[in-house]
Amino acid sequence: MTSDNTHYTDLPELSFANSGTFLKAPRVDPQGLSADVDVAVFGAPYDGAVSRRPGTRYGPAALRAESGWYDHFAGVPGGAYNADLNAHVAHESLTIRDCGDVPTVPNSVERTYTQVRGYTRTVAKQAFPVLLGGDHYLTYPAFCGFADTVEADVGLIHLDAHSDTIADSDLYGDHWHGSPMARIDESTYGSYDNHAMVGIRGYESAGFPELVESTGLHVEYARDVQNDGIDSCLERAIAHATANTDVVYLTVDIDAADPSFAPGTGTPEPGGLSSAQLLAAMDRLGECSQIGAMDLMEVSPPLDDDSGTTAMLGAKAIVQFLESRFLTTE
């Protein structure tokens, strides 16, 4: 779609971009990140690749707003006790910065691809990147931007209701939120051989079982989670994604959760993870040292309930991962 060397450019700011910061972190431009920064959060307010209901362009702002609640012990001596993790966490020991929003282009998936890839590349050179979506197509350029920095095969762990493996569509073309995993498989550093999915349910293309069997793609269906438990499914997924790679990208579509826990998303599917299962997954994934980048996608505030339940769960999932990865102590 674009040259590997193409960088993002500054563009006029969108009216719905750059609202607040995640965990009330200081705002800094990607080029201004210093070597002592642990985590850099950035948003991609874009929903130009959705197939059903738009609204994820407002996801980054909602996730930032809800994250503030989870920083209410910041600066308190000793931090806080996270009962889910059975651990004490002190946010002040984590150096986190918010790099604002990628200057996306609402009516151009091609230009948005270039912007997200370049922005991710710049952020990943200095810190652990956390992308706030946005529709799930954005995982493709973000994965490529991260892979550009490590210049090696990158494994992929993917929590979702849908596989997003449709290679081409007569209606939507090759670049939409149903195709990012197919595009990653074609990329320089991505492959289904190193790709593990968890939570898949609902309807896939007729050839999906054959795709899984022929490519080495690893799938833990929602029925596997129900039968074996989230912990066992995650262990198998982690083992697959890390078997032949040194670094892994984590992508979480909020519709991995059941719509009773996450109604604010464009393509909800009944029968998904509970909020407790999703948070347990983020806890375990935070312990996986090979994960070098993550995103959380498809939060759509216009479709959420009045309490902002979906954005609240999405923000908590990210915080749970970061606390497990960077902050837990005995």
Explain what the structure shows.
- The longest helix is centred in the C-terminal third of the chain and has 19 residues, at 309-327.
- The chain is α/β, with parallel strands linked by helices.
- It contains 9 helices and 10 strands.
- It has helices spanning 59-67, 109-124, 139-150, 180-186, 208-215, 222-228, 230-242, 275-286, 309-327; strands at 39-44, 80-82, 87-89, 96-101, 128-133, 154-159, 195-200, 218-221, 247-253, 291-297.
- The model has no long low-confidence stretch (mean pLDDT 91).
- It has a single domain (22-327), classed as Arginase, Chain A.
- It has an 8-stranded parallel β-sheet with strand order 4-1-5-10-9-6-7-8, sandwiched between helices. It has a two-stranded antiparallel sheet with strand order 2-3.
- The protein is globular.
- Helix 2 (109-124) runs parallel beside helix 3 (139-150), helix 6 (222-228) crosses helix 7 (230-242) and helix 8 (275-286) packs parallel to helix 9.
Task: Summarize it.
By secondary structure, this protein is α/β, with parallel strands linked by helices. The protein is 31% helix and 16% strand.
